Amino acid sequence: MPDRKIGVVIDGATGRLGTTQHLRALLAIRAEGGLPLSNGDRLVPEPVQLGRDPAKLAALAEKSGSLEWSTDRDACLADPSVDIYFDATATGGRPERARAAFAAGKHVYLEKPVAESLADALSLARAAERSGRKGGVVQDKLFLPGLKKLRKLYEANFFGRVLSVRLDFGWWVFDGELFPAQRPSWNYRKATGGGLILDMFAHWRYIFDRLLGPIAAVSCRHMTAQPRRIDESGKPYDVDVEDHAFAMFELEGGALAQIGSSWANRVKRDDLLQIQVDGTMGSAVCGLHHCFVQPLVATPRPFFSPEQPQSMNFDEQWQEMPEILPFENGYRAGWELFLRHIAEDAPFPAPLLEGAKSVQLAEACYQSHRERRWVELDRLQL
Ligand SMILES: NC(=O)c1ccc[n+]([C@@H]2O[C@H](COP(=O)([O-])OP(=O)(O)OC[C@H]3O[C@@H](n4cnc5c(N)ncnc54)[C@H](O)[C@@H]3O)[C@@H](O)[C@H]2O)c1
């Protein structure tokens, strides 16, 4: 069967996500001889690494099998052998880069968040429509084994009537003083698209829309827990964005969700992301991989005594769901969907309007904090 090549520029190829997830996903597809299409053709991605540092790009290209690399975005966009522009650089400036790619006639696939403002995010979705090119945003978390198990529980009507959801996310990110920080300094600066809400609520939006239920309104408070940090070159800087947030979401249908997200809390739970759903017929607690359930008929009657320590071990009262579905890497799965969307017009669940919905949620949370009130989420359309 014939091979069809598809040129993909990876902007930010030497960044963490660019290298460890996206480039790796495309190289894996290539190493398997390409992505099989429904007509029997194989679609072979030809990645081009785009970045700022020639030494880093050359070293990565060497390790990746002598890939092409460049520091010139305009030249990459002018190259007719490039079909897709993919952006995994720092968030700031993403709309300008994406707009330039649409204007050059490329399909555009973006890391989240697609923009820092809803107006910019919507303008990208419209740019895709106008150009007749395809646009998409990464929604990797839906493919996590823990979240796929949670989906099965909804499909099996395990919960009965869902009453509440609790999402806990985060870990301690060192400020760089005692130990080096584990997040890039751009995450902590507004000018480069930093901020925990902009960054993480992008995921929460599609997880709720696609799995837990649509969000009707939000209430949010945030803070800057670590206001002074040390950057990659050892220089101190002032943080001008939030790194810690508590939110409540009211879901359509009335259930409430409590969202704790932080780069400044310490983990004493099963995983870095944990979602608990409580329903009339049962509850589930799911992490990135594992998922535990407790049906109504196996729900204990705990006893509270001020005189003696708790005798029940609550953790032991939950049953773990088995591994039945095969593991899928969410980044690679996203690429396969987007490549098929371009090559054979296959359906794609995450067009740029979905990316705009994530930005809408972040904006609503910032507005709620500023105005100290609940903010409704309007239905978005182009
Ligand atoms: N889908 C996910 O789960 C997920 C996870 C982490 C990050 N992300 C997103 O991916 C993108 C990249 O994140 P990352 O963690 O790989 O970041 P990173 O700092 O590791 O990489 C960023 C890349 O952008 C380049 N860059 C361009 N302009 C920059 C600037 N002004 N400051 C700093 N770097 C700049 C850097 O050279 C680097 O190659 C972000 O938009 C982020 O929100 C997504």
Tell me about this structure.
The protein folds into 2 domains: 3-140 and 330-351, Rossmann fold, CATH 3.40.50.720; 142-326 and 361-371, Dihydrodipicolinate Reductase, domain 2, CATH 3.30.360.10. The two termini are 40 Å apart. Strand 3 (42-50), helix 2 and strand 4 form a beta-alpha-beta unit. The chain is α/β, with parallel strands linked by helices. 41% of the residues are buried. It is built from 9 helices and 18 strands. The radius of gyration is 22 Å and the shape is globular. Strands 17-16-15-14-8-13-12-9-18 form a 9-stranded mixed sheet. Strands 1, 2, 3, 4, 5, 6 and 7 form a 7-stranded mixed sheet that branches. Nicotinamide-adenine-dinucleotide is lined by residues 12, 14-18, 51-52, 88-91, 111-112, 138, 140, 184, 186, 192, 199.
